[in-house]
Amino acid sequence: xxxxxxxxxxxxxxxxxxxxxIRNVSKRFGVVQALDDVSVAFHAGEVHxxxxxxxxGKSTLIKVxxxxxxxxxxxxxxxGAVLHLNGPRGSRDAGIAVVYQxxxxxxxxxxxxxxxxxHEPRGRLRLVDAHEVRRRAQQCLELVGGDIDPAxxxxxxxxxxxxxxxxxxxxxxxxxxxxxxxPTSSLSVQEVQHLRGVxxxxxxxxxxxxxxxxxxxxxxDLADRVTVLKDGKVTFSGLVSETDVNDVxxxxxxxxxxxxxxxxxxxxxxxxxxLEARGLVVPGFVEGVDFTLRAGTVTGFIGLVGAxxxxxxxxxxxxxxGRRGEVLLDGRAVxxxxxxxxxxxxxxxxxxxxxxxxxxxDESIYRNISLAQLDRLxxxxxxRRGAERALATAQMASLRIKAPDSTTKVGxxxxxxxxxVVLAKWLARGCRVLILxxxxxxxxVGAKAEIYRLIRELAAGGTAVMLISSEMPEVLHLADEVxxxxxxxxxATFDNNDPARDQAATEEEVVRHALALESTPQAxxxxxxxx
Length: 531
Prior knowledge:
CATH architecture of the domain at 272-346 and 431-531: 3-Layer(aba) Sandwich
Helix content: 25-40%
CATH superfamily of the domain at 272-346 and 431-531: P-loop containing nucleotide triphosphate hydrolases
Shape: globular
Mean pLDDT: 84
CATH topology of the domain at 272-346 and 431-531: Rossmann fold
Structural class: alpha/beta
Radius of gyration: 24 Å
Number of strands: 22
Low-confidence stretches: 1-10, 518-531
Largest sheet: 6 strands, mixed
C-alpha cells in the first residue's frame, strides 16, 4: 500500500468520470425545507468542497448520501446507475464512507476494534483473526499519522486523535467516495499536513473526496470543484478557478460580511485583576503556569494541540487528576473542586466538545440554557417553568438562535446554533469570568462573525474573557493579551494593545514560541542569571 510520504503531488483531474451524482434531491423536516432540488456531481480523483452556513443543508445532504436519511424526491446515481440505499449499510456496500464531524467511535472499545467493527477479518471457524485486525488497523493508522496505539481504548484519546481514527476507519472500508465533514477542526498544523497527504493519496487512486469545511481558505486550496448551499438550495457549483473567497461568502450568506472582526477597544489601563492562577500544574499536561485574567479584557491562549491550553482552563474549574496550584479571585485564594463551585463564584466555561460536555442534546433549548442558574429559577424546590422559558426566549432573541421556539430539542439544531445555546447558558448566568475553548470550532463564517462580536461585547461589558483557539486570526484580532503555550508552559506573553506595537503578537513570533524554538520567560519574570 502506498504511504502518504510516497503519494505523488496531486494534479487537477477535471475530466474524470462522475462517480456519484445527486439529481434533484429534496428533503423536508416538518415546515423546514432542508434540501430543495439539489443536484451535484462528484468526480473520480477530485476533491469537491461542499460549503454553506450552518443550516444550509450540508449535513442533511451528507446523511442522504450516507443512507441515514431517505430523500423525499430525487435520485442518487453511482457509476451511471440509480443507487437504491437501504440504510447506512447500503451506502457502505456502495463504496461510500463518511467521516462525521461529530465523532461516532465507541469510547469503551479499543482503536483497532472500532476500525474493524462490522467488517472484522476472520480466520478458521469464522472466528475473528485478532492478528489480522491488529495488522490492518496499524496499517491504516500509519497512513493518517498521529502515533496512535491500536490497542488503547478510544476514551483515552484526545479529540484530535479520535478525529484521525475516524479518517482511518474510512480507509478500512476501501471506499470509492469518501465524505470528510470538518476533518481538520481539531488537528494540529502537522496533522493537517499529513491529512492532506492522505487526501492526495486517495484522489491519486481515483477516489472522489467530498470535503465539508468552514475553513474557506482550506477548501479553495484543496478542492478542484466547489458547491455552495444556502437555505437548502445550490447557489453555485463549478470549478474552484471560477470563484474566490469573497464570491463564496456572498453566495453562502447572501451579503458581504465586511470586516469579520469587530474593532478592538483596549481595556482601561488600570483594569482590575479578576482571576489569577499561580503555579498551576496538571500532571502530564501543565507544568507551573501563571497567568491573570482582567476585567474587560480578552486574554488569548494559543499553541499546538497538546500544549496544555485546555487542561489549564479546565483546572480552573476543578477538572484534572492531580491538579495543584493556587487560584485567586479578586486577590483572595479560593478552593474549586468542581465546576459547580466555579459557577457559584461566577466562572463559566464553553468547552471544546460542546456535544459531550456543553449540551444535553435530547433536551430542549430552554432547559439547556437554564442549567447554569437553576438555583435562581427554583421556588420551594420546584423549577419555575415560565421563568425558565422566558429566560431562554430572551437569550434566543439576543443571540439570534434559529429555532421554531425554546422547546426545540438542541440535538436538532445546526452546529452554530448549538454553540450559541452553550454561550447563552453562561450569558444568562452573568459570569464575571468566561472561558471559551475553541468557540468557533465547526462554525460557519456568518456565525463566526456573530460570536466574534459577542466576545468583544462581553469584554466591553466588563467580563474577563479567556479565549483558547487554534485559529491564529481569532487570537491576533480578538485578544488584548496573547499567551503562547508549548509543552505545558507559557513560553511568551504579548500585549496587543501596545501603542508602539513592539510588544504585540505577530504570526511569526507566535509560531516560533508555540514550537518552543526559543526559551522565553513569562512576562514579568526575570531569568535567574539576571537576579
